[in-house]
Amino acid sequence: MAGRTTSPGQTVTSRVLSILAVFESSPSARTLSEICAESGLPQSTVHRLLGELEEWGAVQRDARGRYQIGLRLWELGQHAGRQLRDVVRPYLQDLFGLTQETAHFAIRDGADVLYIDRVYGSRRVPQASRVGGRLPMHATAVGRAILAFEAGWVRDAVLGAALVQRTPFTKADPEQLRKELDKVRGQGFAVASEEVRLGSCSLAVPVFQADGRIFGGLGIVLPTSRAHQLERNLPILLGTAERIQAGIAHLPKAALQPAARVRKPQQS
């Protein structure tokens, strides 16, 4: 894409990425003015770059002229993490088949969990996660199942940052969460109830790499009206986690790297 920038140090690429980042937080279509406001770019620049992105297929317009992510960009994105998804998907399908509950797999991405895949049926459960979406690590069962087994400095970094309270039930006190993570390490599973979305609860277990390091979290989601049924699914979850661990052991190291990591403090 050709063009000149008028802001020192800001390249065309950075401007395009700023525009695409607008769609990251929500899948809904956006107007030109909304994209300008959220990207912080001039309308003339946004209009020109959106035109080029639309021509390439990265964005498309709906019947009202609003912009949304295009199919070509979606198609390109399917190549990201494909090896990992191909390994995890059959086990998620088995887990759903055995429990008939929404099943998902996530890894750590910075201080969030990134959902790699999800399998669900027609049973209505309030959903907060989506494939390719992120949620706060401290507020989710899969996030706590991962964080409990991370290195101490990772836990310190996550719990030392501002902890978002998504609902009135979200645990956001660092000391309370440290005790919760100690409990998760001791019992080998994590539970969260209505901490991200009202009406749903979740059970999750850790998934480890062949060298014993934590890699991801495997979880199921139920409506809170059936929260008393959560832990009866624990043996199936643990068995499925072991199968996933055996499966990812054959993946190349590059396929097991999260997209981003909490930065380790420098030694003084």
| Count of β-strands | 8
Query: How big is the Rg?
Result: 20 Å
Low-pLDDT parts are: 1-6
The description of the largest β-sheet is: 6 strands, antiparallel
Mean pLDDT: 84
Strand content: 15-25%
The CA-CA distance between the termini, in Å, is 44 Å
Q: Structural class of the helix and strand makeup?
A: alpha+beta
Strand order in the sheet with the most strands: 5-4-3-8-7-6
Give the number of helices: 9
Shape: globular
Secondary-structure element pattern, one letter each: HHHEEHHEEEHHHEEEH
Fraction of residues in helix? 25-40%
Please describe the topology of this protein.
Elements (H helix, E strand, L loop, with lengths): L11 H10 L10 H8 L3 H14 L2 E3 L5 E3 L1 H7 L4 H18 L2 E8 L2 E8 L14 E3 L4 H7 L4 H9 L13 H14 L2 E4 L6 E9 L5 E10 L10 H15 L20
Antiparallel strand pairs: 1-2, 3-4, 3-8, 4-5, 6-7, 7-8
Helix pairs in contact: 1-2, 5-9
Polypeptide structure, described:
With 268 residues, the protein is of the alpha+beta class. The protein has helices spanning 12-21, 32-39, 43-56, 71-77, 82-99, 141-147, 152-160, 174-187, 234-248; strands spanning 59-61, 67-69, 102-109, 112-119, 134-136, 190-193, 200-208, 214-223. The strands form two sheets. A six-stranded antiparallel β-sheet has the order 5-4-3-8-7-6, with helices on both faces. A hairpin with a 5-residue loop joins strand 7 (200-208) and strand 8 (214-223). Helix 5 packs antiparallel against helix 9.
Describe the structure using short key phrases.
268 residues; 38% helix; globular
Summary?
Helix content is 38%, strand content 18%. With 268 residues, the protein is an alpha+beta fold.
